[in-house]
Design a protein that fits this description.
single chain; 94 residues; mainly alpha
């Protein structure tokens, strides 16, 4: 089953939940900082190779983010997964 492509808005929102800078995501995903900056500027689904999008999504999911697909009139989004009631045990990288 193919995953829906995440959007640049979800990418930025996921980083914000984790309080990650683009450089933090670059380090954790193995995707270059300039590539992340470029992808975040373009609205809508990530304009990236599938492998690049998968690396970004995997790094954010490993850190505790869940990507929520669009459902009916509710738009796509992000949230913490894991513990009931919120944020997983996460230590910032700063």
């Amino acid at each position: 089953m193919a995953k829906d492509r995440i959007t640049s808005e979800q990418l930025r929102a996921a980083r914000a939940l984790l309080r990650w800078e683009q450089r933090d995501l670059a380090r954790e995903s193995g995707v270059s900082h300039p590539t992340i900056a470029r992808l975040e500027l373009q609205p809508g689904p990530l304009a990236a190779w599938a492998r690049t999008a998968d690396k970004l999504q995997a790094a954010l999911e490993k850190a505790g983010v869940e990507f929520v697909p669009e459902e009916g009139e509710k738009g796509e989004g992000v949230r913490f997964r894991g513990r009931k009631g919120g944020r997983p045990d996460y230590q910032g990288t700063s």
